[in-house]
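Quick one, tokens below:
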């Protein structure tokens, strides 16, 4: 009995020591709040970030009239939650969902959903749903764009799609590339044909590693996509301005037998320059759609646009590249700090091919095939996570637009954004 008792004690002690040793080997989880809830294991094998955003807008248009312009309204522009992170250091994931925010919407929309491998900076892989690498304006998060809405040129850029991409950088970021294939049908949609869309973007920051501070913030790039549209509706040629929500070009409802059918090409060039509190961005996009009508086969329709934009942080902070701005003196009434203030101005232009009229896609009266927009904005960053941004917008059309009770070749309005993100 006595010897059995001692054996039991020894086994229990050994088991306890083994359990303590195993507990020591388990990585200790670390939690912290830093622009969202962050979690990581002590060994770094697993990390996760839970974040989100709410963008509330007010949009109003002066002398609003008719069906071609939306109501003056408060709206929830975005309400999103996301989780992203890494596992075993070399693998990454992200899932982002948008809660229902529009009239009649009852379910959320999946935005980003991907997994990837990122062991080497020179060659990483993503597969799932994410943005195609085209247009610096589109691929910049809505949280970090300089205006309340992207420019009207964004109507020519692709967005999120399902596919696979390889990307990487060399020389400490001097050269970057992204290339891959996608369904070409847009967000959360399986392919409608056997063809896939291919995209490539090349970017260079030629002076990123140099000693001349005034040149380090220069970045140039070019992008290209090619894909195929199969019997797509001419609704793809309806164009509504991104800021005042005015439909300036409306395809003819009586010619729905005509289709966008064939190759779709996009070319793009981009430029970004940052120096201290100053920022400048420019972009040009051309889209070429092949159409097939009852009388004309393999005709091409050209669509083209560009924008120029400049910003200046009057409070002196350094302008970040498509990232979070941290005020030098966050808003605090007790000590008299007001956060960071930025002024922004942009001009944008979009043109639709005159052949859209000749081929019968749109009526020649009451439609404008060119629009120029002027946007003036102020970004008030109270803290790193809260921003208020009033914008004044003026849009000019090359022809009078047929509204419900009148015609006009211009529209003026305002947008105010209230944003919190983490």
């Amino acid at each position: 009995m006595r010897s059995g008792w001692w054996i039991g004690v020894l086994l229990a002690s050994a088991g306890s020591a083994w359990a303590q040793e195993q507990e020591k080997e388990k990585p200790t989880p670390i939690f912290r709040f830093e622009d969202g809830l962050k979690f990581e294991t002590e060994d770094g094998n697993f990390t996760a970030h839970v974040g989100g955003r709410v963008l509330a807008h007010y949009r109003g248009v002066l002398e609003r009239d008719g069906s071609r312009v939306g109501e003056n309204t408060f709206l929830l522009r975005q309400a999103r939650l996301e989780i992203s992170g890494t596992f075993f250091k070399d693998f990454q994931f992200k899932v982002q969902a948008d809660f229902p925010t529009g009239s009649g919407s009852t379910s959320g929309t999946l935005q980003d959903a991907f997994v990837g491998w990122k062991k080497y900076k020179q060659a990483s892989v993503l597969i799932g749903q994410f943005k195609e690498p085209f247009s610096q304006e589109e691929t910049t998060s809505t949280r970090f764009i300089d205006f309340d809405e992207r420019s009207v040129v964004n109507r020519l850029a692709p967005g999120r799609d399902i596919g696979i991409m390889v990307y990487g950088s060399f020389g400490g970021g001097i050269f970057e590339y992204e290339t891959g294939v996608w369904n070409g049908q847009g967000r959360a949609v399986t392919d409608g044909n056997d063809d896939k869309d291919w995209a490539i973007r090349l970017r260079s920051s030629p002076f990123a590693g140099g000693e001349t501070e005034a040149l380090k913030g220069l970045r140039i790039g070019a992008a290209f996509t090619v894909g195929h549209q199969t019997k797509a509706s001419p609704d793809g040629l309806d164009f509504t301005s991104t800021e005042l929500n005015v439909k300036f070009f409306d395809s003819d409802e009586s010619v729905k037998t005509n289709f966008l059918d064939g190759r779709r090409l996009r070319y793009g060039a981009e430029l970004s320059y940052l120096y201290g509190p100053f920022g400048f961005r420019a972009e040009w996009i051309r889209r070429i759609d092949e159409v097939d009508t009852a009388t004309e086969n393999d005709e091409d329709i050209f669509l083209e646009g560009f924008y120029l934009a400049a910003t200046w942080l009057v409070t002196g902070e350094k302008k970040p590249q498509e990232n979070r701005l941290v005020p030098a003196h966050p808003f605090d009434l007790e000590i008299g700090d007001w956060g960071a203030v930025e002024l922004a101005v942009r001009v944008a232009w979009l043109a639709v091919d005159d052949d859209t009229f000749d081929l019968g896609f749109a009526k020649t009266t009451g439609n404008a095939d060119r629009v120029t927009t002027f946007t003036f904005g102020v970004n008030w960053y109270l803290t790193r996570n809260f921003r208020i941004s009033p914008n004044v917008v003026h849009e000019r059309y090359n022809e009078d637009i047929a509204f419900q009770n009148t015609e006009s070749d211009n529209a003026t309005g305002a947008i105010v954004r209230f944003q919190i993100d983490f």
